[in-house]
Amino acid sequence: MKNACIMVGWAVNKMKLLPDNADQTISKLLSFVVMPALIINSFYNNCTMENLTANVPLLVYSCFYYGLSMLIGILLGPLFSKDKGVQGLYKYSFMITNMGFMGNALILGLFGQDKLFSYLIFSLPGTILVYSIGIVWLTGGKKKFTWKSLLNPMFGFMLLGILLGITHPPLPVFVTSTLSSLAACFSALAMFLTGYVIGKFEIRKLLKVKPVYILTLLRTILIPIGVYFLFKVSERQKKFFCTYYSLPPCRWE
Fold this sequence. Notes:
Blueprint: H1 4-14, H2 22-46, H3 49-54, H4 56-80, H5 84-95, H6 101-111, H7 113-122, H8 124-130, H9 133-138, H10 153-167, H11 173-184, H12 186-198, H13 203-207, H14 210-244
């Protein structure tokens, strides 16, 4: 039912019920208040040394996944347009999906807090790419990468969440309940924002942009399916290796 919030956001935009810059305000609210609460709440409740160790393989998988996506973007991006700025947009689209607002909302809604923690670990390399080469591609090279760009609220709150999770200090009830309440707002608000932003575009015009169909087919279907089967093959090889050499069960499960 939370997906219906997308339609609500779209309808609110079309009916002009909010100011023109409402999407910017909602985005800031999500980025600096609701998402930090979601991250800290998830890490505080799930981040232990045991869980961190168990999720280390996700970083290996993630680095491979984003590395492959970035390579595909570099190779195919120039084929979609001759304009350098548009090429950067396609490269970025191949490399990064909407892993923030929409990704977090879907994982939280479908699988709950436990899997959200694993997802945040998996998406960490992607977050680094967004604030590094992603900035360069999206601006057509107008902005250069600096190490300061990695010093952003997302990383700060993740580090704070890891610290709180590992040390697990007894926080006052009003703090934990506030974090939990704000985190519970994330899915609905993120999907509302998605619908509101979609409402700003002419759907008919978007449907006429033919390269988007090719990009969507590759990015949302073919690449994920290809990576899935590659991971399944590597998992079989891992099991065979551990069995053949009589090794203890691997922590990659």
